[in-house]
Amino acid sequence: MITNSAPWSREQALQVYNIDRWGGDYFSINAAGNISARPKRAAGPELDLTAVVAAARGQQLSLPLLIRFQDLLRHQVAALNESFRHAIREHNYQGQYRGVFPIKVNQLREVVEEIQDAGAPYNFGLEVGSKPELFAALAIHQNPESLLICNGYKDAEFIRMALLGRKLNKQVVMVIEKLEELPRVLGVAAEMGVDPLLGIRVRLQAKGAGKWASSGGENAKFGLSTAELLAAVELLRQQGKEHLFQLVHFHVGSQIPDLLTVQRAVREAARYYAKLRKMGFAINYLDVGGGLGVDYNGSRTTAESSTNYTLEEYTRDIVHNIADICAEEQVPQPDIVSESGRAVVAYHSVLLVEVFGSIAKDKGHFPAPAADDHKLVKDIAAVLKKLNRRNRRECLHQAKLIKEEAATRFEVGLLDLPAKARVETGFWKIVESIVQLYHRGVGGKMPDEVREFQSQLAAQYLCNFSVFQSLIDHWAVGQLFPIAPIHRLNEEPTEDATLVDITCDSDGKIDTFINDDDVRHTLPLHSLNGQPYILGFFLMGAYQDVMGDLHNLFGPVTEAHVFLDEDEPSGFYIEEVIPGFTISQVLDDVQYETNVLARQMKAQIDQAIKADVLKPSEGMRWLEEYEKGLTKPTYLAI
After folding, report:
1. Cα 97 to chain center, whole Å?
2. Which of 128, 140, 509, 607 is deepest in the core (most CB within 10 A)?
């Protein structure tokens, strides 16, 4: 339990949850103590997230609920493009910025179409890395001036579809990922009678940093070595196809935390571009790939969940370093392409989840021991009685020994259940008291052994969602996301808690949270008071939507798309709702035909009626409830 002697303030809440640091000026806390969103930052209105929840419930939507702020998505598209434009003007750079959105980051049609519409004034294009993505992109890509970059390994069908785009006058660039692809592309292009636009991904020595560092460097999965690059350009020369080589590409990994990594990679790739220009290849584009990170924890450091740079610093650095190499090599400055996806979409999604209960260690009343109580009960009571600031470490060690001895005696039948329970209750009472002594600021930094017990002491808040569906990166790679209650932030949080989901898997939990440049293992939350308690999971827009799985058959949650509208009393409206999966939908996904299930259940109920286990009316009621249940959402109805 957390205590604080000072009055609780909005500023303390901002600091505890670090909202002003990771919020990117999109999220803050309003005077009512609720988290608010500004999808257009200072240029637009402030929305109370509790009002969004109320509007959603007014449309009969239940939690968990994914909110998409489409105006925020549009704002991020504009911010990226304007930042590059500003850097280009600042450095008197002679090329243009020609950005593309990598749809692998979020392939949902509503997201991609919104990005396309917002990016139209900038000729902002798309990037694909698979055949399904290419089929989707060819249809929705409408702007003949924007690029459609094709990465990934390619078979003949992939190549034909990309060349169909060329026949439709689209600026489709096929990036050669390995040397064997080049003759295949040239052969299919000759058969179709169309000139492809070609890019070549170079495998840099520069390597990324953070969780995805392995996607760059000399052992990267994609890209040509220097020797393979020379073989590729020689093949183009031999066939008189030098003019088809339009783009140099590289990628050093997603979520790059350190700007120095970007600098090294850009300079190395720009050197490749310059040398190729000097060899007579009139290359127009230098594609710096993805990697523009998101400061999930707000620390502005090189931590894996952070970045030590701003968007403006990132774009200035890229423009400056390319210009510098081009000036040194005396070659024309290329148009700059980037494939920033995470930074474009991360901020626009918020997952809202309701807490429906908690599990806590038994730290209840520990009465003074009676004369006939077991010696171990008296021993643990004596430790609790003498505990103070000066002897707290000594008391912790003594309490641990007593608890271990109680467990040993119980295993061999020398301690009964009531005595064992009393010892455990006393132990956790001591641990709670020691943690509180450190929280009161009377003993400096909390030792690791106390911190470990603090995590065990924390309450587990039961949340109506699935980690495996909605936060797959947290489970798979330990990605941290900002999490905070969306209301009651004018009250002091009184509980240290971890979060558990409703799956039956022990991994369905969250026990690592952002904490400036460190990680904390509990989250300060408010005690449950019988009223709805809602947590917001922020910066959810990148990868989580499409990578979640069907563990326990929960399926995607309902989505609500929010748009600003000054004519609405609340300042916004819910423009579209995409329902979450029903029980029948997730069962269909794993080859259960729900009409067959209903027939099988009816047969069993008929048999129970014949055996006089159920009355006919009762049996029909149960069958009706079963069939209706198949149409209901998979998540709990709280």
Report:
1. 27
2. 128
